[in-house]
Each structure stands twice: as structure tokens, then as C-alpha cells.
Amino acid sequence: MTTRLPDRDEVLNAIRQAAETLGRPPSRAEFRSSSGMTEYQVLKHFLSWREAVRAAGLEPDSTNVPLDPAVLLQDWGEMVRRERRIPTRDQYRRAGNYSPGSFERKFGPWSNIPAQFKAFAQSLPEWADVVALIPVEVSRTTSPASQPPAYGSDQAPVDASQRHPKLDNRPTYGNPLNFRGLRHEPVNEEGVVFLFGMVARELGYLVEAIQAGYPDCEAKRQVDAGKWQRVRIEFEYESRSFRDHGHSPDGCDIIVCWRHNWQECPPHLEVVELSRIIKTLASEDE
Q1: CA-to-CA distance for 99 and 197, rounded, in angstroms?
Q2: Are 59 and 52 in contact (CB under 8 A)?
Q3: 119 and 39 belong to one structural domain
Q4: What is the pLDDT of residue 3?
Q5: Which of 56, 68, 96, 277 has the smallest number of Cβ neighbours within 10 A?
Q6: How many folded domains does the chain comprise?
């Protein structure tokens, strides 16, 4: 079975059509809703959502303009008021009006936001209902120095040029990643499966089954508004392991891997390289 991804021109035309309907450049969420395309389908052709919007001849919303910290905190507080709970980073990313990265640049780690809001709202009685929803234990501020380095940070725990003897009977870890709940990069296929599970929904996949046999996964993904197709996925740490394991390309549609290093990969096999995608998901603004 083959599934066709939209080409570059189709993505650009969908962006322009959404902008014409809205009377302004669409947000990523508005684009997904109107076009049926996923973020992953856009990122196959462009390094970021902003680049795609500019390639369509439009100017993205000016989120690079410095935001008043009070504006950010008020928007976070409004979401807490609506939902009656403290949002996770991913929940706010999907439903808030600003990027979680904008908060983190102002206030440090996402876990700091409840305490920052509480300090902001302590003398503002109109926010008393929101303050009451903030648990006492999360009001403690966290020193940025105590946080692990963010994804893509140049701050490594040790000089990368240093090499030490490997100890026997000890686990090994990948490079620091700190992407949501995953502290280190995958070092094996199991890590790839776990990471894909974390982001499958954002990439537009609904996982139907995981199995021990080949292929590893059956999923569905949206190919048009209101239309989905089944796809067969094989997980590998490196894409060339698909060849080394002797898998038949006819039994699979997509290789999901951490590193794509199979230059002779058959053209009908789509490769989802998580190491590239995670960088975009970690840094891209809404």
C-alpha cells in the first residue's frame, strides 16, 4: 500500500487558502483544522511553520515582538479559569494563545509558571479564583540552576571531548535531550518506540496496534479532511537497520527511526527521522 504526501505546492496553496478564508495568516492549529494536513506534512518541505508561511507569500503573526509578562500570565490564568486545572505544557501549547517557549524565556521552566502567576496575582482580587486552584506545593519556585539543560542547549554535563572507560554491568544513556518527560536521546529501538508514542498524535497518527512481528505498528493518519488511511510502520534505531534485519520493503509503508542513514532506502518507503522532528517540536513557536 502507498500513501501520498502533499507536495510543497499543495502545502503552500493550502496555507494561502486558509489565509484567504481567515483574512490573515493562519495559525498552525487553524491550518490543521482547515486543510486536514498535519504539522509533519508541512515539516517534510519546510524547516519550520514560519518558513512555510513566508514561502506562501505571507508574514507570520509577529510573535517575535517582546511580550509583557503580565499578558502571558493573564492568558495562562484564563486557561486555568476555563479548565479548572493547571495545564501541562502540551495542553497550553494546544489551547493557549502564546507559545510555551515565550513563557519559558520569561519565567524559566514550565513548572515555574504557577508560582510566577501566584506572585503576579497576589494583590489582584479579580484573580482570586485562579489562585485558589494553584496547589500550595507547586508555588515553590525552582532555581534554574537546578534544572537539566533544555533540548539543544550548549550546556552539557561534561565536556563532550572527554572520554572515560566504560564500566561493566552499568546502563548507558544517550545525549541529554530533556524533551518533555524523556531525559536522554534514544539508544535503541525501544527508545524510538517510546518517543514516537509521545509525539504520534502531534504528527497526525492514531496508533491501532503494536506487535512483536513485522511490521511493528499499525496506525492511521489523516490524508484529507475527514479521511484517514491505514499505514504500516517499522521502528528502527537507525533506518539502515531495516535492510540489515532483512525486512521486505513491500510489507511496510513507513520507517520511524532516530537516525536516517540509509541512502539507498527505496523511494516508496517514507522515513520519519525523530532526531530532526523533535528539534522542531521542542523549539517551534505556535
Answers
A1: 22
A2: no
A3: no
A4: 54
A5: 68
A6: 3
Rounded CA separation 195/118 (Å): 33
127 and 121 in contact (C-beta within 8 Å)?
A: yes
- Domain, as residue range, for 86: 69-144
Percentage above 70 pLDDT, the chain: 84
**Residue showing cell 510543497:** 8
Closest by Cα among 44, 14, 41, 10 to 26 = 14
Grid cell in block for residue 225 = 479532511
Cβ pair 204, 197 in contact under 8 A: no
Cα–Cα distance, 28 to 40 (Å, whole number): 11
Helices (H), 36-182: 39-43, 49-55, 69-83, 89-95, 100-107, 113-121, 128-131
Residue 4: pLDDT band by 50, 70, 90 thresholds? low
For the stretch 29-71, pLDDT in tens is 788 888 888 777 887 888 777 788 888 888 766 544 556 888 8
Residues 28 and 81 in one domain: no
Does residue 279 sit within a domain?
yes
How much is the pTM?
A: 0.50
- Both 189 and 107 in a single domain? no
Q: Where are the alpha helices (DSSP H) in the chain?
A: 8-22, 28-35, 39-43, 49-55, 69-83, 89-95, 100-107, 113-121, 128-131, 189-199, 241-244, 274-283
Using the structure block, give the residue that is written with the C-alpha cell 492568558: 75
Do 202 and 277 form a contact (C-beta atoms < 8 A)? no
Cβ-Cβ contacts under 8 Å for 175 (sequence gap 6 or more): 156, 184, 185
The enclosing domain of 228 has a CATH number of 3.40.1350
Q: Are residues 189 and 264 in the same domain?
A: yes
